[in-house]
Write a structure and sequence with these properties.
Blueprint lengths: L6 E7 L3 E10 L2 E11 L6 H17 L2 E8 L1 H4 L4 H12 L4 E2 L2 H16 L4 E5 L4 E4 L4 E4 L3 H8 L6 H9 L13 E4 L1 H11 L6 H4 L3 E3 H12 L3 H5 L12 H15 L3 E4 L4 H4 L4
Helix pairs in contact: 1-3, 5-11, 7-11, 9-11
C-alpha cells in the first residue's frame, strides 16, 4: 500500500530553542533520521519563530515525514496571547500544537529516556524556562532554566547566585529524586557534553550516555567565564546565542547535582521530542 509519509516527525517549541525531529519507528523504538535545532527566544521575535516552523514543515515533508506532534512548553504556558499563537502555528504546520503541562513534559522526557535505559532512572530536562524531574512515579516541574537564570543573574552569575539557590531549594522537595542513576537532557546538557568531550559538532551517537562528573562542570564553568561573550558564542555547541546562557545553565546543573547527591550524571540526546513519538 502506498504511504504518503513513511516517516514521522515532532517539534518541540521551547523558551530558548525550537527542535525538529524526523524519525522512523524501528522495533517499537523511535530512531532519529534528522534533528535540527534553531535558537529562538520565545516571545522576543515571533516572526522568526514562525519562519522556523515554516522551514521545519517543509523539511519534514521533503524527507517524507508527517508531523505527528508539536508541543509548546514553559514560555507558552505563561504567554498571554496563546490563542493567537496557536492559530498562527497551526496554519503554518497543518497541525495544532499542544500546550503541555510541566508534569506532562516531565513524563514525556522520562518516557523517551527510560525506553533506552530502563525504568529505574531519573530524567532531568533542563530547558530555557523550566526544569523537569521524573522517575516514572514522581514528577516535578520548576520554572527555572538557563534562559530564565540568565535574565535574573546575567551571563556570569556572581555571589548572589548561591544565596538565591539556597533560598530556592527550600521551596522544592528533591528527596524523591535523589541518589538515582541520573540522565540530563536538553540543550544545556547537550552543550555540556560537547564541551566536556571536545565534540566539534552535534553527534548523538558520540554524546548518548556519556558520563559527566561534577568536576568537569566546575572546570568548564571556569574556562567559559574567562572568555568574552563573542568567544563563547563561537565555540561549537554554543552558537547562535547559547553562549549567552550556558554559564547560568551550568551553575544550575551543578546545583542540581549537589542537591540530588550525585557526583556524576549522564547525557542523553533524547527527551521531549522523542517522547512525543513514543507509543
Amino acid at each position: 500500500m502506498f504511504t504518503a509519509f513513511p516517516h514521522i516527525a515532532s517539534i518541540d517549541i521551547g523558551s530558548h530553542s525550537t527542535i525538529l525531529l524526523v524519525a522512523k519507528k524501528e522495533n517499537g523504538n523511535v530512531k532519529a533520521l534528522v534533528q535540527k535545532i534553531e535558537v529562538c527566544r520565545f516571545g522576543e521575535d515571533m516572526e522568526k519563530l514562525y519562519a522556523i516552523l515554516s522551514n521545519f514543515r517543509s523539511l519534514a515533508h521533503s524527507l517524507g515525514a508527517e508531523i505527528k506532534a508539536v508541543a509548546m512548553t514553559q514560555a507558552m504556558r505563561n504567554a498571554e496571547n496563546q490563542d493567537e499563537i496557536l492559530q498562527r502555528a497551526e496554519k503554518i504546520l497543518w497541525i495544532k500544537p499542544r500546550i503541555i503541562s510541566g508534569e506532562e513534559e516531565a513524563a514525556l522526557s522520562y518516557k523517551a529516556v527510560s525506553k533506552v535505559y530502563g525504568q529505574d532512572i531519573l530524567a532531568v530536562d533542563v530547558g530555557g524556562g523550566s526544569t523537569e524531574f521524573s522517575t516514572g512515579k514522581n514528577f516535578l516541574s520548576v520554572p527555572v532554566g538557563a534562559l530564565e537564570l540568565s535574565k535574573r543573574m546575567g551571563a556570569i552569575p556572581g555571589p548572589e547566585y548561591r544565596k538565591w539557590a539556597k533560598e530556592y531549594f527550600k521551596s522544592i522537595n528533591l528527596k524523591p529524586f535523589a541518589k538515582k542513576d541520573t540522565y540530563f537532557v536538553g540543550g544545556t546538557a547537550v552543550a555540556l557534553g560537547m564541551l566536556a568531550k571536545e565534540i566539534k559538532q552535534f553527534d548523538a551517537d558520540a554524546l548518548e550516555g556519556q558520563a559527566i562528573f561534577t568536576a568537569d562542570i566546575e572546570r568548564i564553568i571556569i574556562q567559559l567565564s574567562n572568555l568574552s561573550k563573542e568567544l563563547r558564542n563561537a565555540i561549537p555547541g554554543l552558537e547562535h546565542g547559547r553562549g549567552d546562557v550556558i554559564i547560568c545553565g551550568l551553575y544550575w546543573i551543578r546545583s542540581l547535582c549537589e542537591r540530588l547527591k550525585i557526583d556524576s550524571m549522564k547525557i542523553s540526546t533524547l527527551g521531549l521530542r522523542f517522547g512525543l513519538l513514543c507509543d
